[in-house]
Amino acid sequence: MPWMHPIVYQDYDAIVPSLIGPLGLCATEQWLGLIDFLPSDAPLHPPQTPLLREVARQIAAYGADPTFRFDLPYRLEGTPHQRAVWERIAAIPLGEIVRYAEIAWQVGSSARAVGTACGRNPLPIVIPCHRVVAKQGLGGFNANRNGVDWGPLKYKLLVHEGVL
């Protein structure tokens, strides 16, 4: 899976458009495993499986209507701490934001560790880590995955959802 290395577009099963730019998708036949933000010039690669076509459809539906609720089969691979943080993030309702420290208190951790887990979220947008903010300001976003500052996308998603 792509993470902290140069972007190799062929690593993705599909690259689809979204309201915030191209998204790289990795999935099996049964579940979605990864959504990656990609540079605006990333070449689109249409989904070839029923699941990937459904992911693309739901991403487009969210782009058209921020109240759209994702309903996708996915599998989260991470440490028990990461999975606990991701489960808490998945429960944040549309129109709300939560501070890193609040999630830290809920899962018995630290704000910094929660921020690290947010940065490792394999399914941003579906698991809305953009709704987790710092004590002052928005905080980071997507842990500069692939060496890119994705912070402006966090802002754009929160504006799309009417939070900002």
Salient structural properties:
alpha+beta, single chain, 164 residues, 3-stranded antiparallel β-sheet, 5 helices
Structure overview:
Helix 2 (80-90) packs across helix 3 (100-107) and helix 3 crosses helix 4 (111-119). The longest helix is centred in the middle third of the chain and has 15 residues, at 50-64. This protein starts with 13 loop residues before the first strand and ends with a helix. Helices cover 32% and strands 11% of the residues. The protein has a three-stranded antiparallel β-sheet, with helices on one face. The protein is built from five helices and five strands, in the order βββααβααβα. The mean pLDDT is 91.
Instruction: Classify the beta-strand content into a percent band.
Output: 5-15%
Quick one: overall form? globular
Give the SSE order as H and E letters.
EEEHHEHHEH
Q: Assembly state here?
A: single chain
- From the helix content, strand content and strand pairing, which structural class follows? alpha+beta
Task: Write the SSE topology.
Blueprint: E1 14-16, E2 23-27, E3 32-37, H1 50-64, H2 80-90, E4 98-99, H3 100-107, H4 111-119, E5 132-133, H5 151-160
Parallel strand pairs: 4-5
Antiparallel strand pairs: 1-2, 2-3
